[in-house]
Amino acid sequence: MSGVIRIAEQHARKLVKDALARLETALSAGKSETLRAYLRTMSRFARYSLGNILLIAGQRPDATRVAGFRKWKELGRHVRRGEHGIAILAPMVRRREEASRMRRPRPEEGNAATKTDEWLMGFKTAYVFDISQTEGTPLPEFVRVQGDPREYLARLRRFSEDRGIRIEYAASLGGADGVSRGGTVRLRTGLPPAEEFSTLAHELGHELLHRDGQRRSRSTEETEAEAVAFVVCEAVGLDSRRASNDYVQLHDGKVETLVASLQRIRDAALPILASLGAAATTTGGRQ
Questions:
Q1: Which of 88, 90, 121, 197 is the most exposed place for a label (fewest CB within 10 A)?
Q2: Model confidence pLDDT, tens digit, residues 73-120
Q3: Is residue 209 part of a domain?
Q4: Does residue 160 lie in a domain region?
């Protein structure tokens, strides 16, 4: 790796480290709303890496759709003069094509006469801009759900079925709205659609996160599942009442624990959002 590339990667990683440090400081001071802001950003940019989610949330927590300067131009919009970009990490990939001149391609290779190798060289700092920083051709607006999950509830049930997680209903669950028992989610009969959606998302969070045999505290498990539900509800535009938990539970004084939980929450929320068709709210692709 050249010296220039190494310096660029070091700078990019320092940005992530600084973002995590700010979040850790806020949580240490009991400011859970700061983490909720990061989780809202995760709901909008779930396809991005955790590092880039942290960077976007730390620099522009109200961002809704981001893209690079050229991408906005392709979409018929331009970045307003004087706007400052949002720094993110961009992978540096090198490609090499080797022509196969010594032999004819085999039948299973089709007409391909070249072979392309790719490898990751490192990361560099790149800049994206939120749609609010641009002007030009209006983009299609996403329909906001706001209290009625509509077809998303059926899609969430289908996701559960596709994962082999059975859904059952019961008149009473001992005061709970939902419980999960390793492969089965039970929901209280008669929940309003919005509550059923958020409760099912919470229990699916448990199913995806907490069936690996690892020991975690009950409070950490509940907070992680609650965070998954919060991210999923926010992503589909559902007014979530599941943000009341104290998300400081994710923070035990060790930044490593916080990062691990955030990564797990993101990894659990992403396949759910993809199944709902709600994970492509950016215009810049995955980073």
A1: 121
A2: 999 999 999 999 999 988 877 665 544 444 455 544 444 444 455 666
A3: yes
A4: yes
**Model pTM?**
0.80
- CA pseudo-torsion sign 190, 196, 202, 206: positive
Spatial contact of 37 and 61, defined as CB atoms under 8 Å apart: yes
CA pair distance 12, 125, nearest whole angstrom: 5
Output Rg (C-alpha) for the chain, integer angstroms: 22
pLDDT tens-digit readout, 202-238: 999 999 999 888 888 888 898 899 999 999 998 888 8
**Residue 222 or 2, more confident:** 222
- In a domain, residue 107? The reply is no
Average pLDDT, the chain: 82
Find the domain containing 49 and state its range. Answer: 3-85+132-276
Helices and strands of the chain, counted as H and E runs: 8, 8
Report pLDDT for 146: 57
CB 99 within 8 A of CB 114: yes
| Structural domains in the chain (count) | 1
Confirm if 267 and 239 have CB atoms less than 8 A apart.
Answer: no
187's tokens: 């929901």
What is the DSSP code (8-state) at residue 187? E
Per DSSP, the three-state class of 284 is coil
Among the listed residues 273, 266, 284, 195, the one whose alpha carbon sits nearest the alpha carbon of residue 236: 273
Q: Please choose, from the candidates 110, 274, 128, 140, the residue with its C-alpha nearest in 3D space to the C-alpha of residue 208.
A: 274
Parallel, antiparallel or unpaired: strands 184-188 and 166-170: parallel
The DSSP line for 91-157 is EEEEEEEEE--SSPPPGGGTT--EEEEEEEEEEEEEEEEEGGGEEESPPPPPPP-TT--THHHHHHH
Higher pLDDT, 46 or 13: 46
Return the amino acid letter for 101: R
Number of CB atoms found within 10 A of residue 88's CB: 28
